[in-house]
Amino acid sequence: MERTLVILKPDTVQRQVCGEIITRFEKVGLKIVGIKMIRPASDFAEKHYYDVKERHGEKVLNGLKEYLGMGPVIAFVLEGPSVIEQVRKMVGKTEPFSSPPGTIRGDYSNMTYKRADDPTTPIKSVYNLIHASANEKDAEHEINLWFSDSELWSYQTVHELFI
């Protein structure tokens, strides 16, 4: 069974829509196997975004580190068949404004790249509510960074027992 990491970022926690978003994953039959609330330090955020500097530059990395550290986040591990692809589809595109209705970003945010790049605003990143592992390699790296083995659980859901 495949696993992925999801992070409800500070804007999600501050807007108090965490339960609604978690419920969306549970409604499609994905299983939470680990969950916690923490406020990531800058060095921890840099480990999480380990390849952003080389892909997008130091400015983007610094914005992401600041964004992730703005307040507490809720990190959780979901398990299910094709869970990485399923979660990415449910989350929507990185830019919420480009995400279609029905996706988490499309339903809960209208943030644009243009606004994030506007030097007249204090915004330094695309506030997009949620992080989801991009692929199996990232999921493994991220889950191992955020969770110890003792924080991850194995159990059967009613769906697994009876469907």
Map the helices and strands.
Blueprint: E1 2-8, H1 10-15, H2 18-27, E2 31-38, H3 42-48, H4 52-56, H5 58-68, E3 73-80, H6 83-91, H7 104-108, H8 113-117, E4 130-132, H9 136-146, H10 158-162
Antiparallel strand pairs: 1-3, 1-4, 2-3
CATH superfamily: Nucleoside diphosphate kinase-like domain
**Spans with pLDDT under 50 lasting ≥5 residues?**
none
The largest beta-sheet arranges its strands as 2-3-1-4
Helix fraction by DSSP (H/I, runs of at least 4): 40-55%
Question: What top-tier CATH class fits best?
Answer: Alpha Beta
Work out the oligomeric state of the chains in this entry: single chain
Secondary-structure arrangement, i.e. CATH architecture: 2-Layer Sandwich
Based on Cα principal axes, name the global outline.
globular
Q: How far apart are the first and last residues' alpha carbons, in Å? A: 16 Å
What is the N-to-C succession of helices and strands? EHHEHHHEHHHEHH
Look up the CATH topology: Alpha-Beta Plaits
Q: What is the structural class?
A: alpha+beta
How many strands, which pairing sense, and closed or not: the largest β-sheet?
A: 4 strands, antiparallel
Features:
alpha+beta; 10 helices; Alpha-Beta Plaits; single chain; 163 residues; four-stranded antiparallel β-sheet; 16% strand
Describe this structure in words.
The chain has 163 residues and is an alpha+beta fold. It has one domain (2-146): Alpha-Beta Plaits, CATH 3.30.70. The protein is 45% helix and 16% strand. The protein contains ten helices and four strands. It has a four-stranded antiparallel β-sheet with strand order 2-3-1-4. Helix 3 (42-48) packs across helix 5 (58-68). The mean pLDDT is 93.
